[in-house]
Known about the structure:
The chain is an alpha+beta fold and 141 residues long. The chain has three helices and seven strands; from the N terminus they run ββββαβββαα.
Amino acid sequence: xxxxxxxxxxxxxxxxxxxxxxxxxxxxxxxxxxxxxxxxxxxxxxxxxxxxxxxxxxxxxxxxxxxxxxxxxxxxxxxxxxxxxxxxxxxxxxxxxxxxxxxxxxxxxxxxxxxxxxxxxxxxxxxxxxxxxxxxxxxxx
Length: 141
């Protein structure tokens, strides 16, 4: 059995005041120009929640504060060497992020009008009925 080599996490962020979601446009790495969510790789010893808080601060320039955080998917690669935890996060209201060099733009949109092209990892979460259903239930609560 192969050992897990890489663990990552990300959050689909919804603003409670508008119901819209935050999307980040990648700028300087693989999949440049695609739209994704806040997140990234965990550092050694970090839990998914600790990694998410760090990535949130690095990518959005602010400390992570949320009204609700719900795990919606745990993706494991076929070779079992990569695991990615995806969360649905509800924040109080929309905000202007202070983007780092990883992103060139942002937007808040309704879930059904999300920007394209999506990063393949983000696109994949919307391809599973069970994950889409979870997101839809959380969106409507």
